[in-house]
Each structure stands twice: as C-alpha cells, then as structure tokens.
Amino acid sequence: QVQLVESGGGLVQSGGSLRLSCAASGSIFSINAMGWYRQAPGKQRELVAGITSGGSTNYPDSVKGRFTISRDNAKNTVYLQMNSLNSDDTAKYSCAAARERVANTARLYDYWGQGTQVTVSS
Question: Quick check: 70 pLDDT over 90?
Fold first, then answer.
C-alpha cells in the first residue's frame, strides 16, 4: 500500500501563487506515474498535471503555462507550483500515484490522497 499526504493548500488572492506538496510513504517502489487532480463543487474531477516515471509532464490547456508539476524521488515527494491563480482554480486538489509508467486518466491511478483545499479570492 501507498499513502499520499497533501499539504500547501489555503486561501490566496487572484493572481497569487501556491505550491502544493504530496509526500508518499509505504510501498513507494511500486509508484511510477504521479498526478494532481482537482474537483470543484458540482464539477467533474479533472487532471491538472501529470508526470511520468521518466519525468515527462502533461497539462490541460486550462493550466498550461501557469502550473508546474515536479517530483523529488529522493524525498518521495511530488509538487505542484501554481501561479497566476484565478477563481476558476478554486477546488480540492488531490495527489494520485500509479503503478503504470504513464497515467493519463483517473482510472489508471491506484492510490489517492485525501486532498487539500485551494480557494482563490477575487
């Protein structure tokens, strides 16, 4: 089993920045791809950033150029740097880990964190 614990969420003004962290523990040798998802009330969960075991990243157009995902394998941690935040970014952000090397859909992720709330005030 793998445990994922997110941190770094909070309240930020529009145009501001936040950095989320996700610390993995447990059977981390099984982890390959990792990602960040978000879900706002009344909306579907969406992928906001993914990173493969090789370090390749992918982002949807809605966050491309503003969000950056990175991973520190020595610390078993993945980060999400979020810049130029706006009210549309308000959501609960969850970290996910997959045994697959590439995971572009939620169903491919095997482990999920509890999530951290990000609220952007206008």
Answer: yes
Is residue 15 left, alpha or beta, with left meaning phi > 0 and alpha meaning psi from -120 to 50?
left
Amino acid at 28: I
85-103 average pLDDT score: 95
DSSP 27-90: SGGG---EEEEEE-TTS--EEEEEE-TTS-EE--TTTTTTEEEEEETTTTEEEEEE-S--GGG-
The candidate with the shortest Cα–Cα distance to 67, out of 103, 96, 37, 98, is: 37
Give the pLDDT confidence score for residue 72 in this predicted structure.
93
Containing 100, the helix (H) or strand (E) segment is none
Cα–Cα nearest to 66, from 86, 93, 41, 96: 86
CA-to-CA distance for 54 and 18, rounded, in angstroms?
25
Amino acid identity of 42?
A: G
